[in-house]
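Residues determine shape. Next comes a sample protein:
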Amino acid sequence: MTLFSCQNQKNTSKNDLAKLQADKSKIQQQVDSLNRHLKQIEKAIHQLDTLKQTQKVTVFTVKDTLFNHYIALHGVVSSDKNVVLRPEMGGTIQRIYVKEGQSVRRGQTLVKLDASSLTDKVAELKTQLSLAKTTFERQERLWSQKIGSEMQYLNAKTQKEILESSLKSLYTQIGKTKIKAPFSGVIEAIISKVGELIGPQSSVIRLINLTSVYVEADVPETYLTALKKGTPVLIDFTSIDKQVSSKISKIGNYINSDNRSFKIRIPLTNKDQSIKPNLLADLRINDYSAVGIVLPLNLIQMNQKGESFVYSITRDSVEIKVVKRVLELGKEYDHHVLIKNGLKVDEELVRKGGKFVKDGDVVKISVTNNN
């Protein structure tokens, strides 16, 4: 009798479990169906609910961009062919062959000093040399015949050579009475006048050649390792409304102890000669370049922890939300910053309206704008 009761209870438990599992399966199917239906209703409500207040934002699409960082400095135009010509010896200016603004070629005589005293000496020495040559030739013939003494022959030879050397020295001095152009260029200024007595320290003519000039600038020593020969430079001459590009050709090896700086030189082509010596120049030296994600600084916000972040756009079939992205920033220049970590190419970021949203907010996009 007892065995029969236990067997009947066991069969009843199995029937109840099967029924419960069947009920659960049926209810789960109903739940799944209701969830799907609920999502469809939510989507329809979202589309039809015009009264729902959501923040409108504009979108910035992340792209790889060339980032350039520049050092801003000031420089001055100089020229190695901007010289004041002075005579090698003193004298009175006899003639000036050129005018201000005139183009001259290298080696052309520009100014002649009075050399009359030297030419008189030349005439005198020529007479003495003529006699000395005759005497030497006669002594040489006699000595070849073993007539006379060797000392007479040597004295005649020495006297001739001394006079020849003196005459050569006079011709050299006469050459120094002429001021010649050391290079081709333009007469910028005539400083002295005809009839004026001048000396080796007197300024006579300023000669300039502007076809090849350069900018020289002082660079703080902190940039010593950042710059090298060939580093690109953008040069603005604001006073003549002109911009040119060039490269550093020379880096100084000396640190000025007064201002802790070193000098650099940037060569310029100046075919139209519009760039003048001592003209001020604004320099932008490209000390760093990289390809990566570059963002305008006004997109980036900062929280109380000091973290820099932006809001990224996420989309699904129902709504558009914003998600906070913490960034690692790199170098900055001209209101833009290179992003080292935290974003991917083609990600969409909130541009305008980012100050009025928080992580997870639903938004509406009004326009996509990368400007």
Remarks:
- The chain has four domains: 1-49, 55-69+291-368, 71-81+209-288, 83-206.
- Confidence is low (pLDDT under 50) at residues 1-6.
